[in-house]
What we know:
Layout: H1 3-9, H2 15-23, E1 27-29, E2 32-34, E3 47-49, E4 52-53, E5 63-68, E6 98-99, E7 108-114, H3 117-124, E8 132-138, H4 145-153, E9 156-157, E10 160-161, E11 166-171, E12 174-179, H5 186-193, E13 198-206, E14 209-210, E15 219-221, H6 224-233
Parallel strand pairs: 7-13
Antiparallel strand pairs: 1-2, 1-3, 3-4, 5-7, 5-15, 6-7, 8-12, 8-13, 9-10, 11-12, 13-14
Helix pairs in contact: 1-2, 1-3
Amino acid sequence: MRLAKHLAHAGLASRRAAEAIVGQGRVAVDGDVVTDPARDVDGSEAITVDGRPLRAAPGERVVYALHKPAGVVSTAHDTHGRRTVVDLVPGAGGHRLYPVGRLDADTTGLLLLTDDGDLAHHLTHPRFEVAKTYRARVGGGPVSDRALARLREGVDLDDGRTAPARVRRLGPGRLELILREGRKRQVRRMCEAVGHPVLELRRVAFGPLALGDLPPGAARRLTEEEVERLRAAAATPGGGSGRRAPRGRRPPR
């Protein structure tokens, strides 16, 4: 992750302001002053700003689950004045929240928001293979076994071949897909590539956390137990199955 992005996720300032702070020589990484905001960090480094440690006490970090409705953009700020996912979490108690990954504007479902940059990095970095589960309604007629096989084996897209996905039919024109990578609009592009354009798309689970019965547009703060389950899922490659739901709930059918 870029240093400026890591500082922004940690709640120091906006991304642009963080870039300026780095450029002014106010940030040190493992004791060395860094002036390049694009310096790569993984969250394990000792980072100080103006001589003070960046990392706050663990209890000060928060994670929220949001049921993102359609038409809301997955960013902290939008230059076009559109409603953002952060706008839907007004009671964050002064925490500077950022979305963990993104859902495109038309996609609904589970999105995580946090001020914990380390956790966000581990949940989204391809190396940790945290699973995301989606339910899609697709066009193009009945989904053939051949189309399912292509999705399961990996699909050639313009940015390379995708990793194999876990896919199953839920009914006529309905699929469940579990991915362990997070390319831009990946589910839509994969389904389009096998002849079944996505008509509706919803994410129903992120690692061990399920959307459950959270209403569209609503958000809730995760419990310490749920956060620890997310940390465990992101601790080792392939740790998040996307199958288990918190508090004994299963993803909605």
